[in-house]
Design goal:
The chain is of the alpha+beta class and 168 residues long. The protein is built from five helices and nine strands, in the order ααββαββββββααβ. The chain has two domains: 73 residues, Signal recognition particle alu RNA binding heterodimer, srp9/1; 56 residues, no CATH class. A hairpin with a 4-residue loop joins strand 4 and strand 5. One of its GO terms (molecular function) is phospholipase activity.
Length: 168
């Protein structure tokens, strides 16, 4: 069968669902976190993503429930250790400033920022709860002090919303 005949034999692609159809069957699904560390250079903070492999390893350790103890996860080929309970990244073989580590799902971008910055884990959890229960958004806006429906610089973005982390 020729390529053209094969193409004609295939059923046409399904039409995209109508907006109402999406709401009926969809359930809220939490975003998959990615782990970042803070690199400070010339007194400027820059949040750097861990590799996909390291982030998955950190998430697995976090999900084990053992992060209440001082669980240490090697990263960057064993050059750095992440102390999960303390949320710190420590160089193994040389002296270097300890870096803060965050499990990230929500980000913001200020007026003067050219990169997205992760919210604290506590605030991200609050935002996740708000988006899990859409009816509570108006109450959350009152509690948080800004609108979740605007698109200004202070509005949070989920990792899968306006910003997609490219897994390196």
């Amino acid at each position: 069968m020729s390529a053209r005949e094969q193409q004609q034999a295939q059923p046409p692609p399904a039409a995209p669902p109508e907006a109402g159809e999406l709401d009926a069957g969809n359930r809220y699904e939490a975003v998959v976190p990615h782990w970042f560390y803070c690199k400070v250079t010339d007194s400027r903070e820059r949040w750097v993503p861990f590799s996909t492999q390291d982030s998955e390893r950190l998430e697995e350790a976090h999900g084990s429930g053992r992060d209440k103890e001082d669980l240490v996860v090697p990263t960057s080929g064993g050059r750095y250790d992440v102390h999960l309970k303390k949320r710190q990244r420590v160089a193994v073989y040389w002296e270097e400033e300890v870096s803060e580590v965050r499990r990230c799902t929500w980000f913001y971008k200020g007026d003067k920022d050219n990169k997205y910055i992760p919210y604290s884990e506590t605030f991200s959890k609050e935002l996740e709860v708000i988006h899990a229960f859409p009816g509570s958004v108006h109450l959350a806006e009152k509690h948080l002090g800004f609108s979740l429906s605007n698109t200004g610089p202070d509005v949070p973005n989920s990792i899968w919303g306006d910003w997609h982390h490219s897994h390196a």
